[in-house]
Amino acid sequence: LIAYVLKDGTRTSIGGAGGDGGVAISPDGTRVYIVDTQAHHTTVVNTQTNAVVTTVAYGSGAVVVNPTGNEWYVTDAHTTSFKAFVRAFKTSDNTLAWSAELPQSGMNSSTEPVGAMARNPQGTKLYVTRRLVNEVDVVKIATPPSVKAIPGAGFGWDGFGAFIGPDCVWGCCESPPS
Questions:
Q1: Is the peptide bond before 151 cis (omega within 30 degrees of 0)?
Q2: What angle do CA 62, 67, 68 make, to 5 degrees?
Q3: Contacts of 90 (CB under 8 A, 6+ apart)
Q4: pLDDT at 139
Q5: Is 169 left (phi over 0), alpha (psi -120 to 50) or beta?
Q6: Taking Cα atoms as reference points, which of 60, 56, 143 lies closest to residue 91?
Q7: I need a labelling partner for 84 at 20 to 30 A (CA). Which of 49, 68, 106, 115 fits?
Q8: What is the pLDDT of residue 110?
Q9: pLDDT at position 14, please?
């Protein structure tokens, strides 16, 4: 798989970058994060030079950047360990900041990988769809992070909609933390 940049009608390929998973851009526009689910990694690309900054050995689906630009998050499911995670990386050096294991739902991650991921506007929570189990996991971004499953709130295979409010997505709402 190959990543391309389209600028002023000209298409340029980025060697060493490509993917069939999520794509996210930093708030300042200087970095693009590309998930390759087949290779199980995420490539960070400098948008000014179209050069690969680094390749991180995690990534199996979605990627999101915090609105402050200090962290980026990637979903990471392992078919051998049957576990799924959200992993946070520092944008300054692309090192792992923390990992949050998503709850087991009775199915293994090879049949129940993570789907789409979105963040609330404040950048304090991530919402992760769980394919085939009709569930959304809410990851509270903190040290350490916490995860809450919302059964019956799944959106099908990959879809996510716009946020309605600080704790709602498509009408699936959780109570504010006490």
A1: no
A2: 125
A3: 70, 71, 97
A4: 94
A5: beta
A6: 56
A7: 68
A8: 45
A9: 67
β-sheet with 135-140: strand ranges across = 114-119, 125-130, 135-140, 146-151
d(CA 123, CA 16): 30
Whole-number Å distance between alpha carbons of 131 and 120: 20
Mean pLDDT, 10 residues at a time, over the chain (178 residues)? 59 63 88 86 88 90 90 84 87 95 63 74 87 79 88 56 41 38
Q: What is the pLDDT of residue 55?
A: 92
Cα separation, 127 vs 139, in Å, equals 6
pTM of the shown model = 0.78
Q: What residues contact residue 42 under an 8 Å CB cut-off, 6+ apart?
A: 19, 33, 34, 35, 36, 55, 56, 58, 59, 63, 74
Long-range contacts of 1-6 (CB under 8 A, 24+ apart): 1/36, 1/38, 3/32, 3/34, 3/43, 3/45, 5/47, 5/50
Two structure tokens written together for 149: 């499953």
pLDDT at site 170? 39
Please, are residues 25 and 32 in contact by the beta-carbon 8 Å criterion? Answer: yes
Identity of the amino acid at 69: G
The burial class, CB within 10 Å (0-12 / 13-18 / 19+), for 121 is exposed
